[in-house]
Amino acid sequence: MAEQLAGLADDRALLGRTSTAERVSDILRSRIAEGYFPPGTRLSEDSIGGALGVSRNTLRESFRLLTHERLLVHELNRGVFVRVLTVDDVEDIYRTRSLVECAVVRGLGEPPYPVDGLAEAVADGRRAAREGDWKGVGTANIHFHRELVALAGSERTDELMRSVFAELRLAFHVVDDPRSLHEPYIARNAEILEALEAGERETAERLLAVYLENSLKRVVEVYQRRVGDDG
Q1: pTM higher than 0.70 for the full model?
Q2: Is residue 130 packed enough to be buried (19+ CB in 10 Å), middle (13-18) or exposed (0-12)?
């Protein structure tokens, strides 16, 4: 915990003079997504508030916001914890992904499509794989799918999926073999990118639908071994 708190202290500058619960939430959300606070971690109000230099009321409001996003859970008489997802949670996340991501691709309209962000994410994933950074590959994968959703040009959709992808990272952080989980999707992301670059929207949607179906099976298989179906 000391290392995590030292990292939070470095984030103080991000708060500026107008410290708000939303800004604190942004910092904590990013730290949770990065794995600084793994699922099941108890978050200390005093330690985190001290590291960020914010009041207890501000921190509690941030905790409330992140609880609403299903990233934290408040346990009576025990405190606030980073949420541990159940298998049902993971399946619901993928249902949402399929509904939204496939609809985004289906509604793209006429090519060419602005795929620079997707190409950057594919390149980042390949670079991380060459370096053996498999958590980095997972981050690049999330980046790819956020860029895919962003093609819809909808702030509301972006906000919805930001929370969905943050929840998905909670599942990734309990996987003990990130390479086997993430490596296959480097090539699959590249295939989707190539289809969109060629203006083949229907092909991209088909590839994406199969991708998400296979990914769900793989994630549930690995995740269930780690936390069971009653986490």
Answers
A1: yes
A2: exposed
Q: What is the dihedral of CA 214, 220, 223, 226, to 10 degrees?
A: -130
Q: Which of 229, 137, 227 is nearest to 175 (CA)?
A: 227
Asked whether 78 and 40 are in contact (CB, 8 A), the reply is no
Residue 110: exposure state from Cβ atoms within 10 A (0-12, 13-18, ≥19): exposed
SS3 147: helix
Output the pLDDT for position 2: 65
User: CA distances (Å), 127 to each of 46, 52, 121, 170, 205, in order?
Assistant: 39, 33, 10, 23, 26
